[in-house]
Amino acid sequence: MDxxxxxxxxxxxxxxxxxxxxxxxxxxxxxACLAVGGSPVMADALEEAADMSGISDALVLNIGxxxxxxxxxxxxxxxAANKKGIPVIFDPVGCGATSFRNRMAEELLKQVHMxxxxxxxxxxxxxxxxxxxxxGVDAGTTSGLDEAAATAKALALREKCIVIISxxxxxxxxxxxxxxxxxxxxxxxxxxxxxxxxTTVVGTFCAACSENLFDASKAAMMAMGISGEKAWAAYGVQxxxxxxxxxxxxxxxxxxxxxxKDGHFENG
Length: 268
Ligand SMILES: Nc1ncnc2c1ncn2[C@@H]1O[C@H](COP(=O)(O)OP(=O)(O)O)[C@@H](O)[C@H]1O
Ligand SMILES: Cc1ncsc1CCOP(=O)(O)O
Ligand SMILES: [Mg+2]
Fold this sequence. Notes:
Elements: H1 3-13, E1 16-20, H2 26-36, E2 39-42, H3 49-54, E3 58-62, H4 68-84, E4 88-91, H5 99-111, E5 116-119, H6 121-127, H7 145-159, E6 162-165, E7 170-173, E8 178-181, H8 194-208, H9 213-235, H10 240-253, H11 256-262, E9 265-267
Parallel strand pairs: 1-2, 1-3, 3-4, 4-5, 5-6
Antiparallel strand pairs: 6-7, 7-8, 8-9
Helix pairs in contact: 1-8, 1-9, 1-11, 2-8, 2-10, 6-7, 8-9, 9-10
The structure holds adenosine-5'-diphosphate, 4-methyl-5-hydroxyethylthiazole phosphate (TZP) and magnesium ion (MG).
């Protein structure tokens, strides 16, 4: 499925995307989902997490501000999502920073089948069992592109899922096919929420195009990167606050023509 077709489907289908996410960027994620054409719902109560996933088209699990109860809700929602056959998209925020986070992330992978895992390089290295240090929620340890791609592939094969490492070039792999998205701009790493929004956008595209999660992930990462480029060009001069809002503006403005013309990738 080409990228323009993926975007068209998101807008036609207006999928419901259940999120259990952090309290730092929750509003950014809800607005990013709406802007690209989805319908977000944030629900983390133990009493309703499974029911909400039961009426949704995808589930996004983001451990940015985790606690023991939130993880229990994630497991209930994740199992309901797996049972229903909707994709679960996992953002292992801060994995590699503390042992609690590492243990909880491992537990989630044990209990729930994730369709897509999206994180920065040290988060994915840590999840893959490599020695990695995450600086709070920011990529700590770095790695060459080839080494990062090898780690992503190994994790994708181990978890039977798609793995995305975001960065200057975003790596997307299912363990067999690997591509690099070259859209985006360095300033995206300067605002909190660009990673979380990426995961939300991936979740929204996967919800609408669940028959081809690789193409959906590719289109979603392109949409995010293109929106970042255009927002920086339009609002960067005014500063990071305007850029932040501009990113959501462009997630709403992006259309089939723009994604087909401005989306760039290389084979990995
Ligand atoms: N140096 C860079 N050049 C281009 N795009 C970047 C760069 N750093 C981050 N991005 C983009 O910013 C978004 C968030 O990625 P990242 O900063 O790795 O996530 P996180 O916030 O989870 O650490 C992605 O769309 C990614 O492509
Ligand atoms: C700062 C922070 N602290 C806990 S979650 C969070 C937001 C992380 O967002 P992102 O991964 O998109 O930078
Ligand atoms: Mg992040």
